[in-house]
Design goal:
The protein is an alpha/beta fold and about 750 residues long. Helix content is about 50%, strand content about 15%. The chain folds into four domains: about 10-170, tt1808, chain A; about 170-405 and about 420-500, no CATH class; about 510-605, no CATH class; about 625-755, no CATH class. Helix 19 (about 430-445) packs parallel to helix 21 (about 470-485) and helix 22 runs antiparallel to helix 26 (about 600-610).
Length: about 750
């Protein structure tokens, strides 16, 4: 292969994928033939140099590089390699020579960081003996030592990607993304302003209905009715709007937030595209981002329409990464200003090297969280109830569950069978999910599971739900990044188990004479009914797929019913169900004829998903802290029966309506999910306001520790009172953490730990 025959980052990774098996065989030969470390190192250096020549990459190679902390065997730009004689390393980090090799890598990383004034987080080290790779890095000041990886084509491909990616492109890390795409960046301000302006003039079309449905979701998840007034008068918001080139006195705050969410969504989808292209190469069937950034006019709009439709990702076997969300509206409001700013954004993003996500998998979960973190001023985020769970707190909750599968493996600890399931019912961007995936993946590998088996275990074991459309998108992409290295080994289409739904308020059963035999979902386009016989996940998935196909195809109602009778036998057995299906189909068909149909069948599928989930062994999370009086009036009325059912209302009459007692939505979520989603004997661990443990009123109802009047008891295993700490950045919240177990009585005194600085 000639030196210049491989071009671009995607081309480089496709070439590495092709040659990895052969390179792996060269490693095996070198390990078998070398008599000592020096011979093995020489053989590998020659092999690496040959690949660099094929790729046309100039590697900054330093051999026997002297540092203040010792002499490193080989340094390639930001990668340190510590060669060991073949057969030296073992799969156990507690092994003496293995531990010594890791300590050597650590000292060389520290020495290289000092010598070249680099941040330690930007360096990568590997101990290597031809039989095992051990990757070593720093993350936010903490040393991360991965479990030894057996040398095989997959691990060798990872080694080669790391080696050459550290010499190519802009690193896909949180700091760079914030610098290039945060709200203080001029291009970001231009994009937000262009989207804000493009929303004008869309009062009755699909864009308007998508905006209204987003407001319904966002209002419930953020308590916007009460927070909105406070936010509008924030000095920080006025300054923020002015920085966007908008008039602070007249800015439409929800419209501004919707524009910001659309911008963030656009970034997230294209980051996912960028990363998947690196992993899948030509298999993704997508135009490289560098090419997309140079498209003009309708050609660019059509390429983005392919992205938003999700077809690019479905080609790789990802069923639901994008499901036609609320943020593709800009394609219908396309104009010259929108085109120009989106092209600028794509051009900058195309400069990034996506495989740096794999260089430091621990930073991957921070990518989207930190970027979203900097979209709005801190005070505005806090008014909207947006507090991000720090990793240390999330890791503590996972540890307190006491399940080894969801904790990083420790030397000498046995890995139990990977048959436990975990749910985060308010998953946000996925902090708990990604930490759990990281631990479960490591435990599966340690137990000897193959990559395909590990992927199946993760997808069946770790599930998230959230009501914020943007959070669900971010969580799905974060989930994807966490398992991206396993996707080449998938055995079926992958559905990322993160759902846009309400963990508290599932679609309600009809109660009136004309609403029986159905469940009803309230949406911005009216009530959407579903027959009660559609009572399993496969049935719902089949129904929504048929709906989409037949609504968009313009089929007659009777033709639609015939297909349902054929593929959904329960419908044929219950004639009253056909009446409901006719109503649903004709409602969606009418929306389609008026240009208002885009996502409603998929909204239905997601909203019903909580009804079909099997109970979990563990529930963990940081539920929304929203006072009753901050909830939209409609949501108060819909959830009122639940507050009563679980004994959380200790007031009555107007006191209840007015919200006396400062009831918090987090308390309701704790009881609802313990009832619906937690197995008997299962454990729930939540972050919650400390006031529930000591106050009268709402706290008194919470402390009943029983589901309903005569349901199973809930045993409080432990409470951490962190009210004396500043747990969330820039916010003085009275925070606590608790764990309870379903089916056991609480024993007093309850273990209660007060944390101090």
């Amino acid at each position: 292969m000639s030196k210049h025959s491989v071009t671009g980052i995607s081309g480089m990774y496709e070439h590495i994928h092709r040659i990895a098996p052969d390179f792996n065989r060269r490693i095996a030969r070198a390990a078998a033939q070398a008599h000592n470390e020096a011979e093995f190192e020489r053989a590998l250096s020659n092999a690496i140099e040959q690949v660099a020549g094929e790729l046309g990459v100039e590697l900054a190679f330093r051999q026997e590089y002297t540092l203040a902390t010792g002499r490193a065997d080989a340094v390639y730009n930001r990668l340190v390699i510590e060669y060991e004689a073949p057969g030296t390393l073992r799969p156990n980090l507690g092994h003496g020579q293995t531990g010594h090799a890791v300590r050597q890598v650590q000292t060389y990383l520290e020495g290289l960081a000092r010598a070249e004034r680099r941040a330690p987080d930007r360096l990568l080290g590997v101990a290597f003996d031809g039989h095992y790779y051990i990757f070593v890095r720093y993350h936010e000041g903490h040393l991360i030592i991965e479990e030894p990886l057996e040398v095989n084509p997959a691990s060798t491909e990872r080694f080669l990607r790391a080696l050459f990616s550290l010499s190519s492109g802009r690193a896909l890390i949180p700091g760079n993304l914030v610098e290039d795409f945060g709200s203080r960046n001029e291009t970001s301000r231009q994009v937000t302003r262009a989207l804000y302006n493009a929303l004008a003039g869309h009062e009755a079309d699909l864009t308007a209905h998508l905006y209204e449905q987003w407001r319904l979701f966002f209002g419930e998840v953020a308590g916007y009715e009460a927070a909105g007034g406070k936010v509008r008068h924030r000095r920080e918001l006025r300054g923020f709007a002015q920085g966007m080139g908008l008039q602070p006195e007249t800015v439409d705050v929800p419209r501004l937030f919707f524009s910001l969410h659309t911008y963030f969504s656009f970034l997230v989808k294209n980051i996912a595209r960028l990363v998947l292209q690196a992993y899948a190469g030509g298999a993704l069937g997508a135009t490289p981002l560098t090419t997309v950034a140079n498209l003009q006019g309708e050609a660019l709009r059509l390429e983005l329409e392919r992205l938003e439709g999700g077809g690019i990702f479905r080609a790789l076997g990802l069923k639901n990464l994008l499901e036609g969300d609320f943020f593709s509206w800009y394609l219908n409001a396309w104009n010259g200003e929108v085109e120009e700013v989106l092209r600028l954004t794509l051009g900058r993003l195309a400069e990034y090297n996506p495989v740096t996500v794999q260089d430091d998998p621990h930073s991957a979960r921070d990518l989207l969280k930190k970027l979203y973190h900097y979209l709005l001023p801190r005070e505005v985020r806090h008014d909207l109830g947006e507090f991000y769970t720090p990793d240390w707190l999330a890791e503590r909750l996972l540890t307190q569950l006491g399940e080894p599968l969801f904790q990083m493996p420790r030397p000498g600890r046995r890995v139990p069978p990977p048959n436990k399931r975990l749910l985060d019912p308010a998953c946000g961007s996925g902090t708990f999910l990604i930490l759990a995936i990281r631990a479960l993946k490591a435990n599966c590998f340690r137990a000897g599971l193959a990559e395909g088996d590990t992927l199946e275990v993760i997808l069946n074991s770790i599930v998230g739900i959230d009501l914020n459309p943007l959070a669900v998108l971010a969580a799905r992409v974060n989930y994807l990044l966490a398992v991206a290295d396993l996707l080449p080994y998938r055995r079926r289409e992958v559905e990322i188990p993160v759902y846009l739904a309400d963990s508290i308020l599932t679609p309600a059963r009809g109660e009136g004479l004309w609403e029986q035999n159905r469940r009803v979902l309230e949406t911005a386009v009216g009530k959407l009914p579903v027959p009660e016989v559609i009572d399993t996940r496969p049935k719902m998935e089949r129904l929504t797929a048929i709906l989409e196909e037949y609504v968009r195809g313009g089929f007659a109602t009777e033709v639609f019913l015939a297909r349902c009778r054929q593929e959904l036998p329960d419908v044929a057995a219950h004639p009253e169900s056909e009446t409901v299906l006719v109503e649903l189909f004709e409602r969606l068909s009418d929306l389609h004829r008026r240009g208002l149909d885009s996502i409603w069948a998929r909204v239905l599928k997601n909203a019903f998903m909580p009804l079909f989930l099997e109970p979990f062994d563990y529930v963990v999370g940081n539920p929304p802290w929203i006072n009753w009086e901050s909830l939209p009036m409609g949501y108060r009325q819909q959830t009122a029966p639940l507050w009563h059912r679980y004994g959380l209302f200790v007031h009555s009459g107007m006191d209840t309506i007015l919200g006396k007692g400062k009831k918090d939505l987090s308390t309701l979520m704790a009881y609802v999910v313990a009832d619906r989603f937690l197995k008997d004997g299962g454990k729930l661990a939540f972050v919650i306001t400390q006031s529930v443990w000591k106050t009268a009123g709402a706290g008194q109802g919470f402390r009943r520790f029983r589901i309903g009047q005569d349901g199973p008891p809930l045993r409080v295993l432990h409470v951490d009172d962190m009210s004396g700490l500043q747990v969330f950045e820039g916010a003085s919240t009275r925070t606590s953490v608790f764990v309870w177990q379903k089916g056991q009585e609480t024993r007093y005194p309850v273990p209660y730990t007060y944390w101090k600085k």
